Each structure stands twice: as structure tokens, then as C-alpha cells.
Amino acid sequence: MADEFTEANAASITPEEMQAAIESSGYLLEGRIARVLQERGLWAEPNAFRVDPNDANKTIEVDVIGRTLEWINEENKSTAAVSILVECKNNVQPFAFFVEPQQVAEVNLSRIRCDGFPAFSRNANTQVPELLQDLLGMKEWHHYCHASEIATRFCGFARANEKKKWKAEPMNQYSCSFSNVALMSAVDTDPSIATNLQNIQLQLAYPVAVFQGPIYEVREAMGKITVEKVSHLQLHHFATLNGQMVQAQIDVVTEHAFPALVDKILNEVKTFRDRINALYPRLLNSALDQKRVATQNAARQMFQAHMTPSVTHSSY
In terms of pTM, does the model score above 0.85? Predict the structure, then answer.
């Protein structure tokens, strides 16, 4: 036993080795990303866990969530909130994204995560519901709609054999991370949103992946590829929610480019606030109508659940 203890003790990591291991991991990156958010006035939540909406026995995690809001109307507490959901990647080797021309950038309107009340507003003349993305002219100012190229595939790199030849790998763990942040952005809700409040409460959610190491864009033309180092690109990815596919547009940035992205997002939230203010009476009425319907539906569901008889089995 003494020999086993000596051998185990001799193999223990030293404080110097611990320091080196931590410095080369992604733990410090998460802390730096949280500080960037805090320095810009956001409340930062590291290691954010939520119940998996697809399986109540499991959880999903995002490395950092940053939150803040803009007042639309302080008198009745109407707000335009934002959540920035960040996955941090400590890539030792460069990571490559295959980009393609974005033929119609306006299609990305459907990937903007805009939730809360009102979800839409009916045209007073036609009574046709108009989505906020259209009503607030988001294709003019939201950066999703300004992307000239979009990534849909990606790969990492590893040694293929003893001759040290590199090979491209699909990196399934990265795909899972992207799906997690996409799913979290789809279900994340400002905790202050409540149907009993007589106000507007809206939230924009932005899924983001921050890479500590270099990222590259790969373009293919006439059977040949070009590789270019970049600091920011857009990725189309997806997650599954209750058996349905949720599409997401993820900002992929280097750590160095992350502060500029946060500034861009905060400017967009101010534009979001101003566009809502320009239509305030109409949107407030829509919000009150939709909150009233949501309250009635919740009450009806509770009543039906209470009135449903329980089934018991007796044995004789």
C-alpha cells in the first residue's frame, strides 16, 4: 500500500502544472467574456444551466449569458430587453467555416429571435397580423440581414497518421455546442415578462460563439478552395424543440472581435426601442390584447386540468 501511495503521490499535478493547464483551457476565456459584458452594463450569468425543454431529466448549458434592457416607457415599465448567449471555444487548432453567397439576405428575418408581447400587431385597416420583424423594418438595421455570405458547414483539424498529415474532421462536439446555444436562444425568456403587467415587454436574443483561437472562411469555386482568416462570420445552424426544427443564426467571432459585436448588438437594441416608440400606441394595444388572451388560455388550462377526473384501479 505504501508503494501505491508513493506512486500516486508522485504522479500528482503540481501547482505550476495546474496553472499552465488552466491557462490553456477555456475557463479563463469564459471569465474574460463575462467581463466584456459587464463593462458594457450587462448583467452576466456564467455557466447558465436550464432544464432541457426536450427532456426534463436533462439540462443544457451556455457558458455565459448577458442581459440588459432599454426603457420604452418608464411610467408603465415597458421594456425592450436583450440576451446575448455565448458559447466559448478554446480551439487549439484553427477552425474552418464553409461560406456561400447569401442570395436574399432578407430571409434571415425569420432567424431573428424576437419574443414577448406583442408578438404581432394587426393592421387597423385590413386586420391582417403583421410580425414585428416586418413592422419595425428589421431588414434595414438588423445585422443578420446585412450578411453577404453565410456559413452552413464547418470542420476542425487533426493529425491523420504518423507522417503528421493533417485531416479535416466534422467536430461533432462543436455541432452539439452550436445546437445548445441555438436551443437556449429559442427558449430563453426575460424573467420580468408577465401577462398581468399592462405594458409592452419584448426581448431580442442573440446566440454567439466566441473562439479563442483563429477562425477561417473556406470558399469553393470551380473545384478549388481558398482559405481566409477572419474575425467575424455568420453561421446557420439548428436545434430540435419538441420534435420541430428550430433555425438559428449564430454570430461566430474571435475573442478580439467580441467587444465590437456586443457594441453592435446594443446599438441594435436602441434602434429596436426607438422603432417601437414610433408605433407605441398601436403596439401597446396589441400587447394588452395578447396578454389578456394568454391569461385566459392559462386559466382555461388550469380549470381543465382541475376538472379532469383521475383514473383509479381497484383490485379485489
Answer: yes
